[in-house]
Write a structure and sequence with these properties.
Radius of gyration: 22 Å
Structural class: alpha+beta
Order of helices and strands: EHEEHHEHEEHEHEHHHHHEHEEHEEH
Cofactor: Mg(2+)
InterPro entries: DNA/RNA_pol_sf, DNA_pol_Y-fam_lit_finger_sf, DNA_pol_Y-fam_little_finger, DNA_polymerase-Y, DNApol_IV, Rev_trsase/Diguanyl_cyclase, UmuC
Helix content: 25-40%
Low-confidence stretches: 356-365, 407-428
Strand order of the largest sheet: 5-6-1-7-8
Protein name: DNA polymerase IV
Number of helices: 14
Largest sheet: 5 strands, mixed
Enzyme class: transferase
Keywords: Cytoplasm, DNA damage, DNA repair, DNA replication, DNA-binding, DNA-directed DNA polymerase, Magnesium, Metal-binding, Mutator protein, Nucleotidyltransferase, Transferase
Amino acid sequence: MERERLIFHIDVNSAFLSWESVERLKKDPDALDLRTIPSAVGGDASKRHGIVLAKSTPAKAFGVTTGEPIAKALLKCPGLTVVPSHFEIYVAYSRKLIHLLEDYTPDIEKFSIDEAFLDMTETIHLFGEPVQVADSIRRRVREELGFTVNVGIAPNKLLAKMASDFQKPDRTHTLFRDEIPRKMWPLPIRDLFLVGGSAQSRMEAIGLHTIGDLAHCDPGILRTQLGEKYARTIRDYANGIDNEPVEQRTAANKGYGNRVTLSRDVSDMDEARQVLLSLSETVGARLRADQVLCGQVCVELKDWKFRSFSHQGLLQFPTDSTSVIYEEACRLLKEFWDGTPVRLIGIRAGKISDHEFIQMSLFETEQDKKRLKMEQAVDAIRSRFGTDSVKRASFLKKDALVDHAASKHKHLGRKREGSHDENSGISD
């Protein structure tokens, strides 16, 4: 008989805040540990700008939530200590975590900067019982890297991720098939992966309030409310069904992307361009951080009816320039978007290559080179003083639809077209 898969999901507890704390304590052992006080990583507290990217457990007790505006968080907790983000530091700690996890299996999928899936099916026998191995991983991360993680253990990625979201911090949880009725079905329907606010409202309107309600709902009723593809996927998830493999980690990223679910539908070209600029900022910064170039740009849209569209184009020469990526994205958007209201906008950079294998382009001008040097200087300033230390003027408007550096949108697999993912993409 085929052996049942064994999947671990590793989730860093309050990742950005934890890494910020570890780095500060490394520089000054007498520094105050941000994890022990009401604190948050986010925008400029003095100007009350930006959003909460991560918060401490004491801040959570005041009701501070990830993704909310700093101004709102300060109303809940006037004594909140807010520190700027340092993305380069977080990338470095994320890489250290992956390096540690490689001791346990070669089959690793880096799900996001602070999460990873491990397929332990073929290697678990080398280390011991699953819970003991997970506890060993947590202990090593805590002692060797200075922060904590949750570990979820299950027969597939979905259940492993659900398990790791149980009680925090620094815990190991299992969610095997015989545990689903007891551990997962009583949970609110919103706790299920891929259930956003709109889908939650529609399901609650027909009497579905828990994951168990959804698991036992008549498929025909679900199809009429949610559409055939999403209804089938979400009911499978409620029953713990997910056959998606853990995609083996490769030496280089095949593509860099970012997308954001908007707070309201957008039908105006200028507003859509503003979102593309925000996304281009983060994609360009990630390319430069990894010292790679892209030769292709793709724009993704999801309209108000949850229909997905995309359009891609090849660049004249490989680049890691935010401005070049943004200009190409705007060109693509103008070519294929008819102004239908959209709720999600994304950018993907493809055809990734290393700098050393790229010949100088005849099309690259001195202006292009100067612009790239400027962007690299901005990266250095943001790395030292925080992501919000430098902003384009267009993002200083009070009514800006997105922040100047939109957060990475996370989803369980690399492609989950047609899904109703309504999360902000910011996790903690």
